[in-house]
Amino acid sequence: MPIVEAHVLEGYAPEAKRRLVAALTDAVRFVVPAPDEAITVMLHEHAAANYARGGVTRSPAPALPDPAELVLAYLRAMEARDLATAQGMLGDGFAMVFPGTGPMTTLAELVAWAKDRYRFVTKTYEAVEAFPAGGAAVVYTRGTLAGEWPDGTAFSGIRFIDRFEVTGGLITRQDVWNDLGEVRPR
Amino acid sequence: MPIVEAHVLEGYAPEAKRRLVAALTDAVRFVVPAPDEAITVMLHEHAAANYARGGVTRSPAPALPDPAELVLAYLRAMEARDLATAQGMLGDGFAMVFPGTGPMTTLAELVAWAKDRYRFVTKTYEAVEAFPAGGAAVVYTRGTLAGEWPDGTAFSGIRFIDRFEVTGGLITRQDVWNDLGEVRPR
Amino acid sequence: MPIVEAHVLEGYAPEAKRRLVAALTDAVRFVVPAPDEAITVMLHEHAAANYARGGVTRSPAPALPDPAELVLAYLRAMEARDLATAQGMLGDGFAMVFPGTGPMTTLAELVAWAKDRYRFVTKTYEAVEAFPAGGAAVVYTRGTLAGEWPDGTAFSGIRFIDRFEVTGGLITRQDVWNDLGEVRPR
Amino acid sequence: MPIVEAHVLEGYAPEAKRRLVAALTDAVRFVVPAPDEAITVMLHEHAAANYARGGVTRSPAPALPDPAELVLAYLRAMEARDLATAQGMLGDGFAMVFPGTGPMTTLAELVAWAKDRYRFVTKTYEAVEAFPAGGAAVVYTRGTLAGEWPDGTAFSGIRFIDRFEVTGGLITRQDVWNDLGEVRPR
Amino acid sequence: MPIVEAHVLEGYAPEAKRRLVAALTDAVRFVVPAPDEAITVMLHEHAAANYARGGVTRSPAPALPDPAELVLAYLRAMEARDLATAQGMLGDGFAMVFPGTGPMTTLAELVAWAKDRYRFVTKTYEAVEAFPAGGAAVVYTRGTLAGEWPDGTAFSGIRFIDRFEVTGGLITRQDVWNDLGEVRPR
Amino acid sequence: MPIVEAHVLEGYAPEAKRRLVAALTDAVRFVVPAPDEAITVMLHEHAAANYARGGVTRSPAPALPDPAELVLAYLRAMEARDLATAQGMLGDGFAMVFPGTGPMTTLAELVAWAKDRYRFVTKTYEAVEAFPAGGAAVVYTRGTLAGEWPDGTAFSGIRFIDRFEVTGGLITRQDVWNDLGEVRPR
């Protein structure tokens, strides 16, 4: 125990079902200290014709995209300076905060701000964590930064963590913390 | 849809059941874009005598403590310099990393390191997020720091984020990022 | 087969559960020609704390009153000329049609119309049928009428049928057919 | 809540499943005042090999025909004076009662009786209601009659209601009430 | 997997539920080579008011007695020559066959037959196996016999096996095999 | 009642499912004195992708062979003196005990012992009973023996019972009792 049974409409892709099973398993582990082999999840798939709410049959909504994949694609686009692609992944009301900045709402603002801070930066990821949180998904990425200061000297191994909120398949919030301020030349 | 049924042994406190229901609801929302009122969770509680694995009846393990509560209690103890209480909340292999430090394994190390960094610091919390992640729980706290620099001048409104791993009801890892390095006098 | 499982919140009275079981059994019989002993209904009662929609636990709404009982109480009140009690059982937009009348909306209208038709009338019930029909309940009562014509001669054994609509525990429609027109003196 | 799960053998036509879902939904609405979107019905279809009573697997009985369709087909046949077709829809022990008649058991009797009552009659339907009731289905049709009196004068807009009992796919009882007696010339 | 859910009426004693869980677990093991910790059995107990077949609620029948206990009590009574008690445990149509006998239907017959065979005999049980088999339970007891031959010499360690059929809580059949014939003096 | 639901992974052959349903039905009958038509068993088959323990999906293990079939094949091979085939059906640690022998561990031992006992023997089966018993299956075969004594005279109608233990699809134990000792010439 526990045993979790989830009834879903037929038609979700194997990957979506795999993520649902993992999320339900984790939900149990969060509260119940059962050994892994005692936590069972069963998905029951129902044909649309066999399920009704208020007497009305329903169609399955397409599964939400994996928010971790979405965030990584966004970060890759940013690192490649492909702002158009990155912009297309942002939702209404998007805002981002970087160390020492106030909220910025456009990628252009970010680029302008970063120009004086470093010539370029690349990320090495140590971990990506995606979680449900109320109606949204939260994604944390962390690892280290490498790049060049404006004066051309190199840096590397500097810790960072990014926090993203994803709603309806779009990024609506990015918060960034890192140790650049500890070490950058001033 | 979806409808989630979770079978658990009788005996969990209302608070634990509430957390389990919330975690299962969030697990569904993570993958399936159903409206809230269409996501149903039912807990089925079973008397120990009515449940067997391998023919052997089982007793319910006590619910895991809320990891968010645990982390906040730890942070309160640290802020009050009650190191003994804080130490009692740490698990085997505990390590922590702060901006500009390598891994530290004892609270004494942390106190020694911080002495040169600020006279004191207090935290204002904006959010606490706790998630299941594999066998562990992950807790993120974020908000702003206020305090005094070693020279006695005050600071405030400086962003921070802490990440904790909680296993078996004990904290095993703390990672800290903040913007102190952006602003501290050097 | 079929086996019907109904999950309801704890707290319904035995009588309400009995009516629910009967209605579910009849629903199956309506479509599936299984022998009676093969139609099984199980009610699963869930404590309010063990059931959530959208992460929110719910309280059971009080069961709807038995519409057959409501209609019979109304008819008893009418036969006893207790118009105040009968009026209290009528919902907004109530209308009634009797043989040869158009729609009447008040009991006073009915009484005025009936005065010229018979001195009094009593009903003997052969059957009362109550059914769900969309959001409303429908109740049919049928049997025979006895009473006295305006000239004082007696009549009896005259067939009638009444149809009622009940919504939210109040009568919103009454339609009456009978054979008085076949036999009454003109 | 409530959530209804019905286990049936595989093989019912979509239309039969649709009627079963509707009947189960109505059964719940009859007793529990839940909003429509909170009433969920799930059909679980089981392969015959996966279901046994007393250790014996079972085949699904063909669904019962929609009794409303059956009654309407009978009434159409009667209106078209196609007595042979109508007769084939009647079950053992069939009886019918019309205004002012005793029980008649053959359609020929009905035709003979009606001859003196009107030259012909056609029905305009306002509603057809079909309900399960114990082992039988009950169908009510109501609306208005139009036609010609024996003297050739026309009538129309005269209310009627018919009640049918349907058992095993055949009509076993018909009861008719109408307002012809209120208005027919005598 | 597999997971077995058994719905039973409330009111069975813990011992009966324990036997039911064990029998269901064994039933799975008989066909599916799952490791023990993967075979889960859940009993769902339903209040009598929450369960209906054909619309009729049901009371739980008292559990059948453990047939192994019944048979052992019978054998103890026989060994103590308490024929009255043993007789009370026999059902209609009881028959028994011992090595070299035809069917005997009364305990008196058995006693008469045994008189020439040994002065007395006692049983040491190695195992008692009770199984369901169609509507009846089958019990096998096996072990060794010790006692004295008619001439007073002792014997011991002689293998036996008894097979019993138990129906409705009474023994209806006993078959005995043993190695006495291999060794008894002739 | 009772109703048994067994959740298994998809892929078991009809014959294996039939045996599982029969074993579950018998398990119920063993404890609950319900009439046969009130004992319902439903198998729910789950696609491997829809079932996880500890977050890991599982493949169905092939069903265990019918132990009764296995034992009968072994006995046929022995009667045909096809020792190689019979040997292949024996598991590690196999032992057998016949009337008057100690434990024998090879078929060659058995053949050597039997040589002095009878020229040949054939079995007529009255019944074969197979049961789950803990992790193993137990099979009992009983009936009568016919054959020839070493001196060439014939015998027949002599009762026997064999008990087998089957683990992991191989025979690990055989115990034999019969009445040969009662009648054989000495």
Automatic annotation (TrEMBL), chains A, B, C, D, E, F:
Domain (SnoaL-like) spans 71-173
- Alphabetical UniProt keywords: Isomerase
Q: Please report the name of this protein according to its UniProt entry.
A: SnoaL-like domain-containing protein
Q: Name one GO molecular function term.
A: isomerase activity
InterPro entries from the entry? 4-OT-like_dom (IPR004370), NTF2-like_dom_sf (IPR032710), SnoaL-like (IPR037401), Tautomerase/MIF_sf (IPR014347)
* SUPFAM superfamilies in UniProt: NTF2-like (SSF54427), Tautomerase/MIF (SSF55331)
Source organism superkingdom? Bacteria
Q: Which residues form the 4-oxalocrotonate tautomerase-like domain?
A: 2-56
